[in-house]
Amino acid sequence: MSADSAAAGRDALLDELRALMAAHSPPLHALVVPSEDAHQSEYVSERDKRRQFVSGFTGSAGLALITMKEALLWTDGRYFLQAEQQLTNRWKLMRMGEDPPVEVWIADNLSDEAVIGINPWCISVDTAQRYEHAFSKKHQTLFQLSSDLVAWLYNIRGNDVHYSPVVHSYSIVTLHSAFFYVDKRKVSVEVQNYMTENDASLLASGLLKGSAVNGSSHGENDMNENSKVWIDSNSCCLALYSKLDQYQVLMLQSPIALPKAVKLDGLRKAHIRDGAAVVQYLAWLDKQMQENYGASGYFTEAKGSQKKEHMNVKLTEVSVSDKLEGFRASKEYLDGTTDITRTVHFGKPSEHEKSCYTAVLKGHIALDTAVFPNGTTGHAIDILARTPLWRSGLDYRHGTGHGIGSYLNVHEGPHLISFRPSARNVPLQASMTVTDEPGYYEDGSFGIRLENVLIVKEANTKFNFGDKGYLAFEHITWTPYQTKLIDTTLLTPAEIEWVNAYHSDCRKILQPYLNEQEKEWLRKATEPIAARC
């Protein structure tokens, strides 16, 4: 299908949706189409990509709003350019952080007593309550649809979602029992035995029949009139919440959220193997760029040789990504989830590009070396990674860090490092994992991101004011920074020492996983840098 015909199809879909909205009882003045699935997942399976289906925007984050006259898409700063390119002229891009949030826009722009439709399986209780609060001033209604107008605990893993080893399921845990609701066709004999050994019941249906929450069947010995049902309002969907007796609901963060955020040994080992794979990839890519494209290469800014007239295989973003995947797949990879970003330049970087890269690196180091008291949130330390960019009047629109799953989703809470208000909710604590990834993006020109995974650890401070205890970070990602992109005149002596110590550790840790040619490339990539006058 051509791009023009696909766009025409999506425009026709808008008309069809509006006809369904008008015919609905009650008639809908607007339809909210979020990105999330029934589990509030960031990455969703193909069948749950409703927002992508209606808008054509393929970014991982966003929300579509369709009214009888307008179609609007909200997304964050990572995707502004992509959304501009993918949306047709019938859609309006709403920039998160710059334009009003969707609930404010609805309250300001739709009529009194307007009815706004939502699939209650795809909206959290927190979000629904925020919407309802905003709508109340004009007596607007958030209406739970019985069917979507768009057609689309146990340490187990599945493949319901590409690139994230998760399984679509639900769980109810009582004082004495555990019930796991899942399509049994997905459950292997090994998993069945594991669940049986751990006293968990596999149930294929009945989640919404009330039996598991009101005590009439499953878990009946655990429920009485004084019992409470604990839900996490940030991840429990509105459809399930609406089936509960409100006076019995206890809304708190999930008790497994913080334990899930703490995982160490497997993660450290996975990042060592991943660092080796990335170094192998960079050494291979460096050779390809020089031999086939006449590029200067990873280490020098001098003009390269002539580009080959005839290449057997032309490098593309897809082909080089597949090559990196091959290096990673050659190693054992079932004990952790990795997340790394390095920016490289195979030609002659401009002074502006160098200064921007160096500012990002300085913020990256500032966060890595931070020491802070217990009780500090990621919101409080986000500024550390941005300050070097701010000094030049630059910034980035994305968050600075997120939690990492343990052979699970690459983005995992409940904590994060960000300017967003939600980063105030959960303090950082020892043994949590979080990324350190400042960046800078110049529209239509270039982009920079540097990312390591950090583990929060107890800091060995000289004093302990207020008996709070202090925390620091340990980095577990091992891949060199491209030194030809670093303007050492902008680094402090302490920052130069940090880079050299990091590179020295990279050599020691990664060499056992590399062949002789790769070791030599790594040795050159990690040579000490010195201050320039």
TrEMBL record:
Residues 469-529 form the Peptidase M24 C-terminal domain. InterPro entries: Creatin/AminoP/Spt16_N, Creatinase/aminopeptidase-like, Pept_M24, Peptidase_M24_C, Peptidase_M24B_aminopep-P_CS, X-Pro_aminopeptidase_P. Gene3D superfamilies: Creatinase/methionine aminopeptidase superfamily, Creatinase/prolidase N-terminal domain. Keywords: Hydrolase, Manganese, Metal-binding. This is Aminopeptidase P N-terminal domain-containing protein. It comes from the Eukaryota. Residues 332-458 form the Peptidase M24 domain. GO terms for molecular function: hydrolase activity; metal ion binding. The keyword Metal-binding applies. Belongs to the peptidase M24B family. It comes from Oryza glumipatula. One of its GO terms (cellular component) is cytoplasm. Its cofactor is Mn(2+).
